[in-house]
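Figure-free illustration: sequence to structure, shown twice.
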Amino acid sequence: MRSLTAAKWLLTGLLLVAYQSQAQSKKWTLEECVDYAIKNNISIKQSELDLKTVAVEKLEAIGGFLPTLNANANYSINTGANINPATNQFENETFKSLSAGANSSIPLFNGLQNWRALQRVKLSEIANNYRLDKMKDDIALSVANGYLQILFNKEQLKVLQNQNTISKQNIERTKQLIEAGSLPAGDIYELQATDASQEQQIINTQNALLISKISLCQLLLLEEYASFDIADEAYDVPLSAILNESQENIVAKAKEAVKDVKIAMANLDLAKKDVSLARSSYLPTLSAFLGYNTRWSESVDIKFIDQLYLFDGTAFGLQLNVPILNGFATRGRVQRSKINKEKTELQLKQAELDLERNVYQAYNDVSNAQKSYEAAQKTLEARKQAFDFSKARYEIGLMNSFDYSQATVALENAQSEVLRTKYDYIFRTKILEFYFGIPLYKKQ
């Protein structure tokens, strides 16, 4: 029995280890990161709750068109001088009585308040959906930026490690040349200093990589910082022909794809509806009502059921309310709603201007990033040729270690600049594509 229990515990432990190994080996794609962030972001969850609140408001607005129905009942024991509810006479004795009734009313006309309230709720639902979509877009861009930062740090680390491997090989080669008498002993010091500097850069880049992973984990609300990693996705440039589109065309597309202008337009529609709702209070209201009541008293010598039929009654009719003066309260609401409408009109204009400026800025950023990347590539090619020439001269003793180290550093800087401009170009292109309505990633 004990051996069977031990076997179960051993199997459970092995399964846990296998599960942890599998979890640690998982590498997140950009699509997985964006989807996870959107599903778990606290602000998005709050916005989704706002939509549920709007659904409740919509139900209440629909209920405004329906009639009301209420029932009431009252049972009492009367002592002393009281009006008998059955006979409507004063009686100075103790008796029990009961009264019950029901009433219903339905609005026939209330200045179109119910209709306008329902329309406002529908507009509010549209505005909240736009806000939710914008929040998702902003989070997706932030995740994409963090994701590309990790990829950049990874490639930067590879470049530095490869270069350091070459430096260590050069040190070994230089030791051999020194031992052979081809180079002075002092030439190795500069190479060792370069090696130490590269190792320091590797440590700094490893730290930068770790910090970028932590930043993305925090954005995703993950706590497994140590085991978190992303898939080594390849992003080639140029990514798209987005620069072939005119800036005016991109602006027109952005007004449909980006939610900022749509949110401002929805807010303006809400403000207009608020004005009409406030004006509804100037109009009279008309409602119909219907009521039924009955009563019973212990002091009346008639059966309980007979009294209910004998003393029952109905009431029905119309009720008209005409607003005449309410201390300028309605006028104040109308004026405030008009002022708010003017504010939202200005906000719409500002949103359109901001969007146009952002698109033009993004277009210029992509163009400049492309030029910087192409220039960095040309510089890297020239640095590679210069480094190969310096290496050949150094190996035959025509260049000292200091000049050779300078050529190595120049090559490292050129490689780093290519990586930096590459990922800057990628991210800025992604932003411009986003304005044009192109998704950040392709669905698998």
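We now fold a second protein in the same way, so the two outputs can be compared directly.
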Amino acid sequence: MEPRDEEIGSWLEREVAGCQFKDVRHGKRFVTLLTQLSEQIGGSIPFACQDWAATKAAYRFLSNARVDEEKILAGHFLCTRERFAATNESPVLVLHDTTEFSYHRDDPESVGILQKLASPYAKGGGPGHHITCGILMHSSLVVTTDGLPLGLAAIKFWSRDKFHGANALKRSINPTRIPIEQKESYRWLENVKQSTALLAEPERIVHIGDRESDIYELFSIAHQAGTHFLLRTCVDRLAGEGDHTIADEMREVHVKGLHRVEVRDKKGTVNEAVLELRYRRIRVLAPVAKQKMYPPLMLTVLHAIERNPPKGREPIDWKLVTDLPIRSRKEAIEKLNWYAMRWKIETFHKILKSGCKAEDVKLRTADRLVNLIAILCLLSWRVFWITMLNRTRPEGAPYMALTPTEIYLLDQLVSDPPGATLTGNQLSLYLTKVARLGGYLARAKDPPPGNTVMWRGMTRLTDIQLGFILGTKLVGN
């Protein structure tokens, strides 16, 4: 088989095609750096670049004032929109969450401060402070209802220096009177707006968030945009005409169905939990200080509370709010399953930190770190996408994820399991071969390969492919 040079990095070329750097050289350096890091997932910049000239060029790119996360991810955002438009599924979920990247630096101000805690171990024996420096990232991941990540739709970075003194202000002023623009939670609103505008079909979107997303302003902007949301609530808001709260009303609601789910405790033991389902359509009001700015909304409140929880495990207690109607037990379970997909963004962040080693880099300034994390987000999504593609689209064509050269090499390197010829050359067959290169045993009762073996296998396959291409050229000469 004759490999074609244009096959190499084809997925990468698609993800960066929409990037528009003002300086053409920046675009070329970005592609080079992304290629180098994709070939050594989890490796340091010097390890990926291999020589001082390439390493220095990478550092210059990351520290350039005309390079930022929006330019780096612009092409990926467009690809996310294309994948969203290509899927016929409705709805599609947009998962929102915030994560922290912690670093140990002698000069924490250059990176940004996450938290400052009192410490009894200060120099000189007196009271002091322990400073943790780092960056916060709020990301929005688009996934199908069966868990396939289509890509990022919005991302924001910041440090807590910008909101210094906000907690002290809350102790003297009612937090509801502080403008939302002065709070960290404003990132939730920005990402909802940006992701909804990017995907351009608001009626197909359901925004998913944990208790940090329980913000009335978010309810309002989603309503105005014509999009939907399903959020876990932690605030007992005013309801009806303002003479009672949501909790008062929900206490009157009888159990409308039961739902059984499997739950693992801290020891890994699987138990069955029985959830009592209660739901009601309720007129919800904004906080008193903001009722002139935001009108009341008709929302559905869904409570799923575990019946007779066992000792030694926290009981399941989900209190969700959505603008969508719930008219039956089936629809209530559907919404619970959608909210359970929120853990997918936690997995994305885990790959970013554990697989791509985003917290192990030695860059010394926030701007450089943000640019590198944005690049690593592309690699993290790619690993996650391939892992979930194997689980959600097992009968798909191998060319959805692999090039002809990669398919050829996998056929030569990894033998087919018994009976594979009877089921055809499905995507799952080849992605399992990739996982086997990464240490997956593929025994009959093994669960589907996870993210770790997938990125290990992808890295090894890249090395093998480069060797194959070099060998082919040498023989050809």
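Summary for the second example: DSSP finds 16 helices and twelve strands in the chain.
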